[in-house]
Amino acid sequence: MAGLLTNLIMTLMLTAISTVLGCGVLPAGQASNRAFTVTGFTTLPVAMVYTSPTNAVRFSGIATSETGARGFVQRLVMQTVFDVLEQQGRSALLPDAVISAILGQLNVEVSYIPMNCPLVTGPEEEHMPAMEETYCIIAGDTVTGICTIVMQNVDKKKCSTPEAMMVTVTALNGTHLTISGTLSTTNIIMTNWPRAMWQSVVDRAVRMLASGLFGSHFFSARATVGGN
Q1: Digit-coded pLDDT (tens) for 119-134
Q2: Which residues contact 194 (CB under 8 A, 6 or more apart)?
Q3: Whether residues 137 and 207 fall in one domain
Q4: 195 and 209 belong to one structural domain
Q5: Is the Cβ–Cβ distance between 182 and 31 less than 8 Å?
Q6: 192-202 pLDDT per residue, tens
Q7: How many Cα atoms are found within 13 Å in the side-chain-facing hemisphere of 114?
Q8: Which residues pair with 63 in a beta bridge?
């Protein structure tokens, strides 16, 4: 698959002049679109959830708004896809100007529903709520699950030691473990790439995520590209 990606990108070299001059693009208002979905991860970086500014002081990196969390995912995915294409372009010995033109003709639009964490806790923090409360469990820079502690005034409880009827810990909702989006290009060559080509791009992007700063979250992730 990597060979397919390299070979097809090398065809861009044959149209380098037209691409740089802007001739290698679709007519204005037209673009080729490919939908993609990334699933298979079970934990989240804190930057992909959001809480109040007061709570955010306790956990570095957590977003303080839904817009902030969604923006983090948008930037992360877009930059990773761009990095993949840039690497392949350099492997194909494309000039920097051509690579820049290609990336300028590509748009990565991400759709993601961040999780709201009104209450957050470390796994070892103790709580004795006056009513039932639900917390996002944060260990280091990772959101690992959801903890619910029922109303009780007997003794303090912590989410690292679940107790029947008193403390329950559940996995994160699948809604927040799915990233979807669209790859749109006006480049006349990329427009004709088959689905397998785009699948290769997104697969490489996921592998890059798995080997990067947030690798512990994405090492089991998998990607799917729609279309034929």
Answers
A1: 999 999 888 877 888 9
A2: 228
A3: no
A4: yes
A5: no
A6: 889 999 999 99
A7: 24
A8: 50
